[in-house]
Amino acid sequence: MPHAPTTTDDTTTTDATNTDPISGETMPVSSQSRPRQSRPHTARLGASRRTVLKGTAAATALGGLELSGHGLTGSMATAGAAPTAHSAPGQLAVVFLRGGMDGLSAVVPYTEAAYHDARPTIRVPENQVLDLDGQFGMHPSMGGLHGLFGQGRLAIAVGTGNPAGDRSHFVAQDLWEYGTAGGGADGRGWVGRHLGATGAQGDSLFRGLTIGNLVNASLRGGPALGVPSINRFGLVGAASRFSESIVNTYEGARPIEVTGQTSLAAIDQVAGVGGSNSTDPVAASFADAASLFASGLGVEAITLDIGHWDTHDEMGTWDEGEMNYLLSDLDTQLSTFQADLDARGLNNVTTVVMSEFGRRVEENGSRGTDHGWGSHMFVMGSQVNGGVFGASDWAGLAPGVIGRRGDVVPSIDFRDVLGDLVTGVLGGNLSTALPGHSYSSVGVI
Amino acid sequence: MESPAIGLDVGVDSTSVDNVTSADAAIDDRPASTDNPAIAESSGVADSSGSADGSAIPDSSALADDAAPSPRSAATPDRSAPINMARRGFFRRFAKMAAPAGLLATACEMTADSFEPEFHLLQRASYGVTNAELERIRNMGAGAWLEEQLNPGSIDTSQIDALVGQFPALSMTPPQLFTNYRGGGPSQAALFQLQFASVIRQAQSPAQLYERMVEFWSDHFNIDGGGSQTLRLLKIVEDREAIRPNAMGTFANILKASATSPAMLVYLDNVTSSAGAINENYAREFLELHTVGVGGGYTEDDIVSLARLITGWRINNQTGEFQVRNSLHDSGDVTIMGWVRPTSGRGPRDGLEFADWLAVQPQTAEFVCRKIAVRFAGDNPDPGLVSAMRTAWLDNGSAIVPVLRTMFTHSEFQATADTKFNRPADQLAATARRLGGTWTPSTNPGDLSDLAQLFVGLGQVPFGWPAPNGYPDVEGAWLNTGSLIGRWNLTGELLDGTANVFGYDAGPFRAGLNGMTAVDICDELIQRVLHRPSSGPGRAALLVIAGWNQNDRPNGVQISLKLNKLVFALLVAPDAQYR
Q1: Which residue of A has its CA nearest to B284?
Q2: Which of A207, A232, B60, B454 lies at a C-alpha separation of 20 to 30 Å from B191?
Q3: What residues contact residue A209 under an 8 Å CB cut-off, 6+ apart?
């Protein structure tokens, strides 16, 4: 499969700047891939991320501390020492679309009359889709991803779902993040189980992290940092001046204290990594993710969330309105992220995009859609086997198939896609990461 | 079409019969955006509910709770005994873990273990201990203090009311709000006023338990104020008219107030739901999040039935108030979880009867009481405690005050002292109260912008959780690196006076320290900030931070130089993150 051309620039030196060819401005490296970025770095938001740990007890290796429930494993590396290398094939970005993305709008089974009949207002006409394989086509606002598909760098698994079929956002999200169809859940996430099982002395602190205020459940059970943003991952003002106060009060073994020590050590290590100045929170999250993948800090998995997918009402039409806007944004976010990764030469980062359920085949009385079941998953990156997977098993939208409530019936268990990623990207063990599941490869990696 | 008085363009009921604009609940994150134009709603067709198949929602009780189990603290020591260094129950969880050689195995605890029911009650029922309030509760006794807090009408809130009365948006009617704050930026500025008022009330209102309950219900009946300009403005009204008046009444009343609030009608789309063209979003969350919970015994068919029952709920275009439209209402037979719709006098308000019935069902009592217990009594509340609360609920027609009284006086409540991890907003309020600081209301854009930055850094924006389930409430959700960094920075900013709108007097912390030994200064500061006697490790940590030896006698200048650093240490200390 052809891969995207890599750049030859070394983009890892923090002092490097580049001249924007469009504006002529000199800009830090982290914004290189988005030439229209223009907001000046706000001192208040900027972290005074100076080293806090010199000469303190916290800088010495603590030894392996496993704290169940918080999953903080591994020791803090001595300042300056390289973290233990983990020989994973690649790095993984997990993007969770919160609310239940309407897969049928994103990847359209446009040859089926049942699709068009069920969605008089919100359907995408046959002649407007961006064709994928003659059976499915992408929403017309998703040209970026369609382009990646053309390059062989986008895999689309159609008809994916969780056998549990729960229609509660919160239950379904938990099931997906735990990687289970219910029952016997151990409270750990599918990525967290892998990271937790493969923890070792001298591990990087950054093996798994969420970009956000809360750490995603998919990382539970393993070491996981919460990183609101790179720029905010540091001490400012009095906290910075008085960092000694923190060092000396977070010295013990309670979970909060260990988390505090981890925070201080992590701040030090992130100090040299450029953060995004974008005022668009999602764009900033993706930019920071790319920076962290490129940082050499030993990042193996990053999880991110995108909200607002619970489109119960007024989805609009194919060419304007809510769904068009959501998919267009998503296309921009993912394409820009991939371009950023390409520019940094990060060919081993694979991105998976999922949601807790799809939505009903039929539009509802408010020209929106209600909670459904089956949907699609995207897997993006230079290492994927591009193409549409599961098309021949696609259950279709015939009345006899979709049932009384009118659902896409899944033909691929979501855990099979996750399994491909566990082995092909994380280099993990299937029965560890996804216990209780009989895996059958989809082949996206 | 004549432009509507409010111009909500959201399921607004125009004056012409049978012509109802559809809702625009477009999620709109863009600054200064405008609502989409209204689309005329098509007329409904016959009811499309199928026969019940009785399929149950899968039992999700096997899923683990968000939090790892948090242990209860040690058994109540004798209060008359000297304060000892008894290990807290907090350590029991890790008894099996061997401390690695060379590691400081003890926690850095700032204060000695001491258990005082008044202190514990004050910590939990309020937003944090202050000197004045601690003295007051010790003088009147925990019981009398609790009774006062359970009766907020008896508390003089004129000062705090006058303070937040300086926010003009908070008292505006919907037409006034949509006139004065229309648009993305203006509506955000209006919502800031509500967010700021919330911060001020939590830090400074004498009716502390009442404000705790307002926050609780705001989470429980979550409305994402950031979603659209319409929602931001309607949230202001909902806070004033649905949540605050009913926060310590009956659950039945607050449930109905929430259900009929224009904000909720828009947020979860019931405002667009009509006979034959139902929208099930609100009905689902009504059962799953607001009343009985996921395992509460309802089916997918029950959700559809409830959605049918509450069709025709709309918003009056002129006043922005709730009203019903008979012509859009499904008056057919409805059975929900065994409740059967009465045959005669059917109409859109039957949904309120169902709410009354559901409010006093055991599943509702169990679900909501457990949430209240998690908020006030710890992440894994004792089943006996929840059971007692449930009984109080059912014995008193879902009245909240008896439930709270039962909880706060229960022996299992006493046993959970100091184990509840503060969410960022809790920490903001507790820190403000520890400093004895005050917020000054301001609608100045620069001040509001400062405050917005503060919230972002804090990681918890009032009324800003983006899903209907409200901010999580367990340690497992909130204890992470970013959350700690956020609150350390916030504490530093409050101390530095970075935000113009917050100020405190350092005098009481500084006073009388001249001439004391370093050890005594540290002990005294621990008492002044954390209101409890110091512990060995706490004192030792402060000495290191100050760079003093224990028998030093720092002079006035030296004390002044170190004061902020020491106060900061106490405010960020691990102990100080728990209540």
Answers
A1: A168
A2: A232
A3: A215, A219, A224, A225, A226, A227, A292, A299, A301, A302, A303
Inter-chain touch A314–B50, beta carbons under 8 Å: no
**A311-322 as b/e: b if 16+ CB within 10 A:** bbbbbbebeebb
pLDDT of res. B96: 28
Task: Indicate the Cα dihedral angle B54, B60, B62, B66, nearest 10°.
Answer: -170
Residue A332: list chain B partners with CB under 8 A: none
Please indicate whether, in this complex, the C-beta atoms of A259 and B288 are within 8 angstroms of each other.
no
Mean pLDDT of B321-340: 97
Of B26, B108, B483, Cβ closest to residue A249? B108
Cβ distance A232 to B486 less than 8 Å, yes or no, reads yes
Question: Three-state DSSP class for B421?
Answer: strand
Angle made by CA atoms B506, B508, B510, in degrees to the nearest 5: 70
End-to-end CA distance of chain B: 57
Nearest Cα of chain B lies from the Cα of A411 at a distance, in angstroms, of 20
C-alpha A102/C-alpha A368 separation (Å) is 10
Q: Give the DSSP per-residue string, B234-261.
A: HHHHHIIIIIGGGTTSBHHHHHHHHHT-
Q: How many other C-beta atoms can be found within 10 angstroms of the C-beta atom of residue B576? A: 23
> Which of the four pLDDT bands, split at 50, 70 and 90, describes residue B8?
low
User: pLDDT value at position A80?
Assistant: 53
Chain B residues in contact with A227 by the CB 8 A cut-off are: 481-482
Q: Do B100 and A404 touch (CB under 8 A)?
A: no
Give the mutation candidate from A122, A168, A178, A404 for the B interface (greatest B CB count, under 10 A): A168
Structural tokens at position B535: 């512990």
Those residues whose C-beta lies under 8 Å from the C-beta of residue B467, and which sit 6 or more positions away, are A98, A99, A169, A170, A307, B222, B224
Please give the structure tokens belonging to residue A325.
């806007």
- pLDDT tens readout for residues A218-277: 999 999 999 999 999 999 999 999 999 999 999 999 999 999 999 999 999 999 999 999
> Which B-chain residues 296-335 have CB contacts (< 8 A) with chain A?
300
| Residue B97 reports pLDDT greater than 70 | no
In a mutagenesis test of the A interface, which of B480, B484, B545 is the best target, namely the one with the most A β-carbons within 10 Å?
Answer: B480
> What are the backbone angles phi and psi of residue A137, rounded to the nearest 5°?
-140, 155
Domains in chain A: boundaries: 65-233+272-433, 235-270
Interchain CB contacts (distance < 8 Å): A and B = 272
Q: What gap in Å lies between CA A221 and CA B571, rounded to an integer?
A: 30
Position B115 scores a pLDDT of: 78
Contact B100 A178 (CB under 8 A): no
CB contact under 8 A, A253 and B69: no
> Is the Cβ–Cβ distance between B367 and B289 less than 8 Å?
no
Whole-number Å distance between alpha carbons of B93 and B416:
15
| Digit-coded pLDDT (tens) for B199-213 | 999 999 999 999 999
Nearest chain B Cα to A212, which residue?
A: B482
Residue of A nearest to B498 (CA): A237
Q: Could you tell me if B41 and B272 are in contact, meaning their C-beta atoms sit under 8 angstroms apart?
A: yes
Cα distances (Å, whole numbers) of residue B118 to B81, B124, B128, B435: 17, 10, 12, 20
- The residues, any chain, with a CB within 8 Å of residue A401's CB and separated by 6 or more, are A395, A409
Supply the angle between the helices A190-197 and A414-424 in degrees, to the nearest 10.
30
Does the domain at A65-233+272-433 match CATH 3.40.720? Answer given as: yes
Determine the angle formed by the axes of helices B184-204 and B229-238, rounding to 10 degrees: 30
HSE toward the beta carbon, residue B407, CA cutoff 13 A: 28
Q: How far is A331 from chain B (nearest CA, A)?
A: 17
List, for residues A415-431, the tens digit of each pLDDT value: 999 999 999 999 999 99
